[in-house]
From TrEMBL:
Residues 647-759 form the Molybdopterin dinucleotide-binding domain. Transmembrane segments: none annotated. Its cofactor is Mo-bis(molybdopterin guanine dinucleotide); [4Fe-4S] cluster. This is CbbBc protein. The keyword Kinase does not apply. The lineage of its organism: Bacteria, Pseudomonadati, Pseudomonadota, Betaproteobacteria, Burkholderiales. The keyword Nucleotide-binding does not apply. Belongs to the prokaryotic molybdopterin-containing oxidoreductase family.
Length: 766
């Protein structure tokens, strides 16, 4: 495997999207299924009577339009609908130890799981077992645990509302709130920060609002790769002349220039549209400082306007009627020094003042944001500063205005809504008691990082995973992998094999489930499931493809089967009846939770229905009943960032991956082809270390305030790529770079791992 160090690294000259994206779809289909079935299934994607795309949580325009082309949606669908099968025979051919040596891509590319299996330590292989046997083994372990709080129930956000609701009902009936889930690694900073600011942990805008916004600020996300359908929205906004201000350390191609595959003219003429009107390359981790700078400038502009006899630029009526804490915020902003803002954000005062002027000119502003905002030690502060900025000019509860956290997994928001929440809100507990007649536990359970710590310490002995790849998604694989291997039992409900499944415990079960695209036939006939998108729209999804084998069961059916085995007829819940007709599960959700009235009726409307979002009506479910300005005193900086030798590393998704699922080895828009072993560095940082582009380097973790990654955490032999990124900032791919992240390196307010601000040193490879 010798090749020149800079092979596969070259500038990508085209706009994002366009014909290259169409070509990539053809390739994705070719790799996994026949062209005819691939094309046919793609046409049912996000259609009113079709299935919801498992690719992301961006909403569909009214669910009535023609098929919306999306390259990465196509990859997600074909990866699930593949013809490849990971049968028991396949597992006979490969020991678990052998599979552990494979790349993540190759493990999943074995294909769809077809039969329930259990790990056999004697032969080091997964072997087929029956469903009843699997459920009986789980019941035996769970019913022997000294406390229900010694079991962990993980969820990855692909599960439907129906599956997730049953899952939490089962675990709460069993007796715990231990619900580690992928949102703990994702938008938890939003879920903790926004309720304090505006009384709900969700976005306030609808898709229609983007058509009315006259300023869109995009912070810390990469929609060209992770939410390609959002590019249609941004493309339309750019075309009608709405300024789009981007805060991102990396110049992401799609945010600069995009050719919309749905636009016949652009496709025919090979033309494209500029997306960002202003691209601010904030330092990694510098957003709170940048936002404070913009707000400070807004206050100054307001002062000037008042001095010139104007009415001021703040929305004083909104601030007086709807908010609390403005004076404290203003005092803090006036006391904040520009020099500190500039240093911490890496942005000039002039550029932030320019954004402030655009903001004061705009009648309606939306701020959209992703992982570049949330996955930081200051993640919750970042989110709250965004809300402060919006509140200064009353940008809530008006057309074209509001906050837009762009969610990850296609139903991660729905999972939280229907009860995947380790904090066990009172209303949910009361609802369960009302409908199901038992009192769920009130004590808070574990989030994802706490679950791993509890497992490591032996305080938890059992782990069930409804999807996902927990061990690989979490920081510090050295610790996390070792912890999981120490469990009494681990149970994975999954579509495809992955590395977490190979970290076997005393007993390990692998249970195959249906995906979104597949026909879900139960006693009461073919079933639909429901999901909630990033904008709180709940709608139905119906799969039609034949299941990968007759042994594969739906997630609700698997959960109900386990619940029956573990709980017997405790609390008189008729699990079989719930699975026979998912409408009964939805009736349960409707009974337990507010906002779901006529659930079964309303999902029949095209496009579904929207859950109530208080701030969209200027209703604030905060303790004071008002929206709160949240002060982040001063400018907080990582003390290490001052030292030139320490860089702040953001771990990123490539264009060819879905979280830990690696579809392929290209990151087209960043100019990386056929490899992932690279680190993106500013040319001056390279030179400062006596390095040149193409050199092999090692990244070494730098402990923070005594929080160390596992000793000697080093990522070796990466190729240095000179990239347009601020000095002091660096980028490398997730999950490879997770070895550098200490489990304790997280936002103290939300527990979100600081995946996007990892202190590292770069040196020539040993
Ligand atoms: N195809 C595809 N789609 C996906 C996923 C996938 O892996 N593949 N994952 C899904 C999931 S679970 C999620 S959560 C979302 C993730 O979608 P994103 O939120 O887009 O997540 P990342 O790819 O991690 O990219 C974060 C962006 O933040 C920027 N960034 C890094 N650090 C900072 C910073 O300090 N400040 C600012 N302002 N920006 C920063 C990076 O340059 C990058 O452009 O996508 C979902 N959709
Ligand atoms: N360094 C670093 N680490 C990160 C991040 C980062 O940006 N940087 N991002 C974090 C984020 S935002 C997230 S959300 C997590 C993701 O963490 P997870 O959600 O745990 O991981 P995924 O990679 O999405 O899970 C992929 C697996 O899900 C299973 N699967 C797929 N579809 C289905 C289905 O329909 N049903 C079931 N039961 N299983 C299915 C397959 O077995 C597949 O292998 O990772 C986090 N980790
Ligand atoms: Mo996520």
């Amino acid at each position: 495997m010798t090749r020149s160090a800079d092979a596969g690294i070259r500038q990508y000259e085209h706009p994002a999207g366009g014909w290259d994206a169409l070509g990539a779809v053809a390739k994705a289909i070719h790799g996994q299924m026949s062209a005819v079935s691939g094309t046919r299934i793609m046409l049912r994607n996000n259609q009113p009577d079709g299935f919801d795309c498992p690719g992301c949580a961006w909403p569909d325009p009214k669910h009535t339009s023609a098929f919306e082309f999306c390259e990465n949606g196509a990859k997600a669908v074909t990866w699930e609908a593949t013809r490849k099968r990971a049968t028991p025979e396949v597992f006979q051919r490969h020991t678990v130890s052998e599979l552990l040596g494979w790349r993540d891509h190759d493990i999943e590319d074995l294909g769809r799981l077809t039969h329930p299996m259990a790990y056999d330590a004697a032969t080091d292989r997964y072997v087929q077992i029956g469903w009843d046997e699997a459920c009986a083994r789980i019941a035996k372990v769970l019913n022997a645990l000294p406390s229900p709080d010694m079991a962990e129930f993980y969820t990855s956000g692909r599960a439907s509302n129906e599956a997730a609701f049953l899952y939490q009902l089962f675990a709460r009936a069993y007796g715990t709130n231990n619900f580690p889930d992928c949102s703990n690694m994702c938008h938890e900073a939003t879920s903790v920060g926004l309720p304090q600011s505006i009384g709900i942990g969700k976005g306030t805008v609808s898709l229609e609002d983007f058509g009315h916004a006259d300023l869109i600020i995009s912070m810390g996300h990469n929609p060209g790769t992770n939410h390609p359908r959002m590019m249609t929205t941004l493309h339309a906004a750019a075309r009608r002349g709405a300024p789009i201000v981007v805060f991102n350390p990396l110049r992401e191609r799609a945010l600069e220039r995009f050719a919309a595959p749905q636009d016949p003219l652009e496709m025919a003429t090979f033309s494209a549209t500029d997306i960002a009107s202003d691209y601010l390359q904030v330092k990694v981790g510098g957003d709170a400082a940048a936002l404070k700078g913009v707000m400070k400038a807004v206050l100054a502009l307001d002062d000037d306007d008042l001095a010139a006899g104007g009415a001021g630029l703040l929305d004083r009526d909104f601030i007086a009627a709807h908010t609390q804490g403005f004076d404290a915020l203003a005092d803090d902003l006036r006391a904040t020094e520009w020099a500190d803002v500039e240093r911490a954000s890496g942005l000039s005062r002039a550029s932030l003042e320019h954004v402030a002027r655009l903001y004061c000119k705009a009648k309606a502003t939306i701020v959209a944001f992703g992982m570049g905002i949330t996955q930081h030690r200051l993640g919750t502060d970042n989110v709250q500063q965004i809300s402060n900025l919006l509140m200064l000019r009353g940008n809530y509860g008006r057309p074209g205005a509001g906050i837009c956290p762009v969610r990850g997994h296609s139903n991660v928001q729905g999972n939280r809504t229907v009860g995947i929440d380790e904090k066990a809100p009172l209303a949910l507990r009361q609802g369960i008691e009302r409908v199901y007649g038992f009192t769920p536990p009130a004590r808070p359970g574990h989030d994802a990082a706490e679950a791993v710590e509890a497992i490591e310490a032996g305080r938890s002995r059992f782990l069930m995973c409804l999807g996902g790849n927990l061990a690989v998604a979490m920081p510090d694989p050295q610790r996390t992998f070792a912890a999981l291997r120490g469990l009494e039992m681990v149970v994975h409900i999954a579509t495809k094999p992955n590395r977490s499944h190979l970290l076997t415990a005393r007993q390990s079960l692998l249970l195959p489930c249906l995906g979104r695209t597949e026909l879900d036939l139960q006693a009461g006939g073919a079933q639909s499931i429901t999901v909630e998108d990033s904008m709180s729209m709940v709608h139905a999804s119906t799969g039609r493809l034949p299941p990968p084998s007759d042994q594969v069961r739906s997630e609700p059916a698997i959960v109900a089967g386990i619940a029956k085995a573990v709980l017997g007829d405790r609390y008189g819940i008729d699990w079989d009846a719930l699975v026979a007709d998912y409408g009964r599960i939805r009736d349960g959700i409707e009974g337990v939770l507010a906002g779901f009235a006529d659930y079964n009726l309303r999902i029949r409307q095209p496009g579904g229905f929207r859950l109530p979002i208080g701030p969209a009506q200027r209703i604030w479910h905060t303790p004071s009943g008002k929206a709160q300005f949240m002060v982040m005193p001063g400018i907080q900086e990582d003390p290490r960032a001052a030292g030139a030798a320490v860089l702040t590393l953001a771990t990123l998704r490539s264009h060819d991956q879905y979280n830990t699922t690696i579809y392929g080895f290209d990151d087209r828009y960043r100019g990386i082809f056929g490899r992932r072993d690279v680190v993106f560095l500013n040319p001056d940082d390279l030179a400062a270390q006596g390095l040149a582009p193409g050199d092999r380097v090692d990244l070494e973790a730098v402990p923070f305030e005594g929080e160390a990654a596992s000793p000697g955490a080093v990522l070796r032999n990466l190729t240095a790529v000179a990239y347009d990124i601020p000095r002091g900032s660096a980028g490398a791919y997730y999950p490879e770079a997770n070895v550098l992240i200490a489990l304790s390196h997280r936002d103290p307010r939300s527990g979100t791992p600081s995946y996007k601000s990892v202190p590292v040193r770069v040196q020539r490879a040993r």
